[in-house]
Amino acid sequence: MYHRITPNPQSVYDRTPQRFRAELQRLARENYAPVTTAEYATGEMDVPAGKHPVVLTFDDAAESQFRLNSSGEPAEGTAVAILREVAAAHEDFRAVASLYITTPPFGGEHSGRKLRWLHQHGFELGNHTLDHPTLSARSSSEATHQIAEMQRRITREVPNAEVSTIALPHGVHPQPEKLARSGESEGVSYRHDAVLLVGARPAPSPFSGNFDPLNVPRIRSQGGSGSGSELGSTVWLDKLAADPARRYTSDGDPSVISHPADSTRTPAPGQEKRINAY
């Protein structure tokens, strides 16, 4: 989970361009392969054999994440530009991510053009609500309006975009919680395959019985020191490197779900026929 990419971090949610680049390079070295939240949530991940899927998510549609230069390309130093540079240097490290949109998107100016560029280049446009409120503090009708109206604005600019996942502002559900998954307001209906929380651990395999689409955890991008660092990305990547059996590792065949024959993990309902125990 990323927010601003800035040379002058103001909170634990910010990362410098240098540290962001270094983290992407580490992911590439350790055989992680980026997928979108939508691909993860539906299990439609065509990941090369031996690779580990990783979802890069960006909240708040900050201008430091993405803006276009005078040539119509991602501006140097932005998150999207850095991701594309790292991807170009590492085979199987796709330049894809899921960006969660609120208003104004990426600084506001030419926002439609920016959203269209992202969609055309394989980035997922997700919902982060219209005004970024704490949804539990709003009535059910206000909460559904916040979600539906943001979807309407995204699809108005990008008519063929499928807004199928949402990142909850502050990680807080509306009441009732199911309104984060689906709802309708003023003629706009929405349904999400995944509802993302703010923290603070790796998400389970979408083929696992532990997968809960209404409560998908994320790891905050953060170094190995400071407040909350024990839940941050550096610590978690160290843990997963030390215990690689905990990581989802692709068998290279999207039609099959492989796992060790002695595994005690329970598959999600409906996935039993795809299991390949080895």
Features:
alpha/beta; 6 helices; 14% strand; 11 strands; 3-stranded parallel sheet
In short:
This protein is of the alpha/beta class and 278 residues long. The protein has a single domain (17-246), classed as Alpha-Beta Barrel (TIM Barrel), CATH 3.20.20.370.
Describe the structure.
This protein is α/β, with parallel strands linked by helices. It has a single domain, classed as Alpha-Beta Barrel (TIM Barrel). Helix 1 runs parallel beside helix 3. The radius of gyration is 18 Å and the shape is globular. 36% of the residues are buried. The model has no long low-confidence stretch (mean pLDDT 94). InterPro entries: Glyco_hydro/deAcase_b/a-brl, NODB_dom, Polysacch_Deacetylase.
What's the structural blueprint in terms of helices and strands?
Layout: H1 17-29, E1 32-35, H2 37-42, E2 52-55, E3 57-59, H3 79-89, E4 98-101, H4 111-120, E5 124-127, H5 140-157, E6 165-167, E7 182-185, E8 188-191, E9 194-196, H6 233-242, E10 257-259, E11 275-277
Parallel strand pairs: 1-2, 3-4, 4-5, 6-9, 10-11
Antiparallel strand pairs: 7-8
Helix pairs in contact: 1-3
Which fold name corresponds to the CATH topology?
A: TIM Barrel
Q: Count every helix, treating DSSP H or I runs of 4 or more residues as helices.
A: 6
How does the major sheet shape up? Answer: 3 strands, parallel
Structural class: alpha/beta
Helix and strand succession?
A: HEHEEHEHEHEEEEHEE
**Ends distance:** 33 Å
Roughly how many Å is the radius of gyration? Answer: 18 Å
Instruction: Name the helicity range.
Output: 10-25%
Strand order of the largest sheet: 3-4-5
Question: CATH class, please?
Answer: Alpha Beta
pLDDT under 50 segments (min length 5)? none
Protein name: NodB homology domain-containing protein
Region (Disordered): 245-278
InterPro entries: Glyco_hydro/deAcase_b/a-brl, NODB_dom, Polysacch_Deacetylase
Organism: Actinopolyspora biskrensis
